[in-house]
Design a protein that fits this description.
Layout (H helix, E strand, L loop, with lengths): L1 E5 L8 E5 L2 E10 L5 E7 L2 H9 L1 H18 L7 H6 L1 H6 L2 H8 L6 H6 L4 H5 L3 H4 L9 H16 L5 H9 L22 H14 L18 H18 L5 H20 L15 E4 L5 E4 L7 H12 L6 E6 L4 E6 L4 E9 L8 E8 L2 H15 L14 H17 L1
Helix pairs in contact: 10-13, 11-12, 12-13
């Protein structure tokens, strides 16, 4: 039989219950293997109950000290009840100086105290009991998040000035640097907002005319890493030059914002189109798994766009060779994504009377996704005859392999 003896307004704070005549402290913490909340309990005495009932600060301090024991229990382990019971007298009944000394020796959950109103300056100085004079039953999770973010930066040796902090708040990156950035001017101190907007204007000017294209080799929604790096470098260089006092984290968050916005725009824009709706001959697309798709004049998507949609839907680590063929002209191109290379294939003689056709195959190196986009657009526009400027085209396989190895060695040496 379990009866609740004492509880506070917050549903998460430890509750005192009477179970089979004995007092126990019960609290929820962590989760099991199925991500369901775990509940832990351990015995307390009447003197402990009296302090918990009358002293919110001590109640919170006990909670903070017990939580690391709950974390240590993991998803299915048992709470170390002896260790939990051993905290009762030192946290609830000892003088403030002894409690402060205890918190310098044992692990404790700082975020819980900060969320419930602890004085952060006093916590930093090790005066945990005095810090809890401002404690409240209600919890402010954002306050704890901000304190955690400040401590992470302090551990890395990062010092933010007012403008740095304002930029991180503007991009919604102050609390969590891994979140998707967005513009939140309302989170910025109004006195600093004009300075923030000048930094953002510098970044926007630096990337004017740059774009981050899609990279169908990596799926339907992937974007070109090289384009991202190019824009990131342009923004970072310009912002550092115009605003040399900014911290690296502030510069990175501005670059991240502009690159993310450009990438989102690209994801929501149709794949590259060839811009030549008057093309009269069909094209066939194939992959390394013998899947084939035919584009015909009059299709809603242009040939270039439809080819890249085909690639985005089919490309994988074991499917990295794609071909576009114009059967009527007897020519095509083959893209080798695994090697950053391509081949153009021209039919010299059709097969007749059981003989095999004769082809001319020439190879070239490709410089990233932008190179592939240009090559495909040129082929759709003018066939193999329009690919001269996308070379050099090397007919000898051995010579081409030597060129590819040299290129790869140069990349590794950078």
């Amino acid at each position: 039989m379990r009866d609740i003896v004492f509880t506070r307004g917050s549903g998460w704070m430890p509750v005192v219950v009477r179970e089979d005549g004995a007092l126990r402290l019960t609290l929820g913490a962590g989760a099991d293997a199925n991500h369901e909340p775990r509940t832990f309990t351990f015995p307390i005495g009447e003197a402990h109950l009296a302090v918990i009932r009358e002293d919110l600060a001590r109640h919170l301090l006990l909670w903070s000290a017990v939580l690391p024991l709950c974390d240590a229990a993991g998803t299915r382990g048992r709470l170390d009840e002896d260790a939990a019971v051993a905290l009762l007298d030192p946290v609830l009944l000892a003088p403030p100086a002894d409690v402060d000394a205890l918190f310098r020796r044992v692990p404790w959950e700082r975020g819980r105290l900060v969320a419930h109103g602890a004085d952060i300056g006093l916590l930093d100085r090790g005066r945990v009991v005095a810090a809890m004079r401002t404690a409240t039953e209600t919890s402010d999770g954002k306050r704890a998040q901000e304190d955690h973010a400040q401590h992470r930066r302090a551990e890395r040796g990062t010092v933010l000035g007012p403008l740095d902090t304002a930029l991180l708040r503007y991009t919604n990156q102050y609390l969590h640097g891994a979140t998707i950035p967005r513009r939140t001017p309302g989170a910025v101190d109004p006195a600093l907002l004009p300075q923030v907007m000048r930094v953002i204007a510098t970044a926007e000017d630096a990337c004017a005319g740059l774009r981050i294209g899609r990279d169908p080799r990596r799926g339907k929604h992937a974007t070109d890493k090289r384009d991202w790096t190019r824009m990131e470098t342009a923004v970072g260089t310009a912002v550092r030059r115009a605003h040399p006092g900014l911290a690296d984290e502030a510069v990175r968050t501005v670059s991240f914002l502009l690159c993310s916005e450009a990438a989102d725009l690209s994801r929501n824009t149709p794949m590259d189109d060839d811009g030549h709706p008057t093309r009269r001959t069909p094209l066939s697309f194939t992959d390394d798994k013998d899947t084939e798709k035919t584009w015909r004049p009059g299709n809603p998507l242009g040939a270039t766009a439809e080819f890249w949609e085909f690639v985005a839907a089919r490309a994988a680590s074991d499917n990295e060779v794609f071909t576009i063929e114009d059967e009527k002209r007897g020519e095509g191109i083959q893209l080798h994504f695994y090697a950053d290379s391509a081949a153009r294939i021209t039919t010299l003689r059709e097969g007749r009377d059981g003989t095999d056709p004769e082809y001319r195959v020439e190879y070239t190196l490709i410089d990233g996704m932008s190179g592939y986009r240009s090559l495909v657009a040129a082929f759709v526009r003018g066939g193999c005859a329009g690919l001269g400027e996308h070379g050099p085209w090397i007919p000898d396989v051995s010579e081409f392999e030597r060129a590819r190895r040299r290129r790869d060695a140069e990349r590794r040496g950078r």
